[in-house]
Amino acid sequence: QVQLVESGGGLVQAGGSLRLSCTASGRFFSSYRMGWFRQAPGKEREFVAAISQSGGSTYYPDSVKGRFTISRDNAKNTVYLDLNNLTPEDTAVYSCAAGSTSGYLWAVATTTAGYNYWGQGTQVTVSS
Fold first, then answer.
1. Distance from first CA to last CA of the chain, Å, rounded?
2. DSSP letter string, 65-113
3. Which pLDDT belongs to residue 104?
4. If exposure means fewest CB atoms within 10 Å of the residue's CB, which of 62, 67, 94, 101 is most exposed?
């Protein structure tokens, strides 16, 4: 069992930056692929980033590539999401997730079905 707790959300102006953190409890954090998703009001949950168990591979959709960076510190049981050059369209609840299935990130990490555990989310609001 893995419990995930996100932090770092808040209100930021357009063009600003935030760092989100997701800390996991339980053992074997380093055995899980980690991902971040976001959901805006009235919209579907959207994949924004994934990272492999070792941190050696990452994957992003085109909508955030070059602006968002995912990283992890397995010694701290924590995964991060750096959000840069934010726009009002990035406003959403951001959630982290842990998945145990193997495979290439582009194949298994981009949908909610690829994850076993979810955090409660942290709100990011970008003002114009």
1. 40
2. TTTEEEEEEGGGTEEEEEE-S--GGG-EEEEEEEE---S-HHHHSSSGG
3. 85
4. 62
Find, among 13, 3, 23, 1, the residue nearest to 81 by Cα: 23
The sheet carrying 3-7 orders its strands as 3-7, 18-25, 78-83, 68-73
* Secondary-structure percent of the chain, ordered helix, strand, coil, rounded to 5: 10, 45, 40
pLDDT digits over 2-26, tens only? 999 999 999 999 999 999 999 999 8
Of 31-35, 37-41, 52-56, 101-105, the range with the lowest mean pLDDT is 101-105
